[in-house]
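>> received
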Amino acid sequence: MKLKQIQKTFVREGINADPRGVDIVKLDLLKRKEDYDALSKEKKETYDTESLENPYYDSRILFGNPDTEVKSVMVGIDMETPEILLAKQLIDSGKKIDLVIAHHPEGYAYSTFSEVIGMQTDILNKQGIPVNIAEKMIGSRMKEVKRSIMPQNNERVSDAAKLLNIPLMTAHTVADNHVASFLQSEIEAVKPRYLKDIISYLKKQPEYKYSSKIGHPPFILIGSDDSRCGKVFVDMTGGTEGPVESLEKLADAGVGTIVGMHMSSKAFEDAEKRKINVILAGHISSDNLGLNLLFDKLEKAHGKLEFIEASGFRRFRRTAE
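>> returned
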C-alpha cells in the first residue's frame, strides 16, 4: 500500500468512528470550507488546506513522499528523536522499515493540536450539557492548551525524520476515536450494574490484559467494586483531558461513571466532590486499543503489514490472521 492510502484510510475511518457522529463532522468540514472561501488571498496562502478534508489536525503525514510504497511500519506511542535514531539504526542493520507511525502528535501535528479539542463541545453536548455552555468551556481549554504549545520547539522530531530520510506520520485522534466509540458501544452492550463489571470487561481485552501483566491494570479511581455505574461516559478522545468545570455539568446531566485514560489531580478532586465514579482504563493500553482497531481496518482494506513494535505499542489483531 502507498503512504497516501494509509493516510486516507486513517482519516476516513477516524470520521466513521467519531463519537460526535459523521453528520456533525461533515458540518464541521463544511464550515471550514466556508471560512476558507471568505479569506483574503494573502491569508489563504498560509491556510492549512489539508484541514478542509482532514478534520484531525493531529493525524497527518509529517514527512515522506505520499507515493512511498509501505510494507513494514515501526509504530510507537511516543516516537521522538531517539526512536527515529533507533529506526535508522535498525534500517542500517538490515531491518526493512518503510514508515514510522507515532501515536502522539509531533511537528506540525502538535503545533495545531489545540484545534482538535474543539470536538469536545459536541461530545459533551451528546452527554446532555447544553451546547452553549460546552462551547464556552471548551473554548477556554483550547486557549489554555494553545498557550502551552506555542513556546515549544515542535519541529525536532520531524526534522530528525527529514535529515535521516525516514517517512513519518502521526495517528492520534483517528485512533482515539476508535477506542472511545468501541468501548462506549461495548460497555453499553454489557449493561454493567457495578464498577467491577466494567473492570472485568476491560481485562478481557488483549491490550488491557497485557498492560495488567506489566503492572498497569485498569483500576477504580473513585468508587468501589460494588458501586453502581449509572450512566457511563467513555471519555477518551478530543485531543486531551477536558476542562475541570465540565465535571459539574456532567454530574448535572446524569453521568454516574466516567471511564477514561487518565485524570489530573484537579479533575480527580472535582469528580470526587461531584460523587462521580471514575475508572482509569489506562493511557498507553487505551492508545494501543485505538491503534489496533484502526490497523485492523487498514489491513482489511489494503492487506497485511509487517509491524515493528516500539515505544509501548503492541499489535493485537481482532481480525483473522
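>> The CA atoms of residues 182 and 321 lie 21 Å apart.
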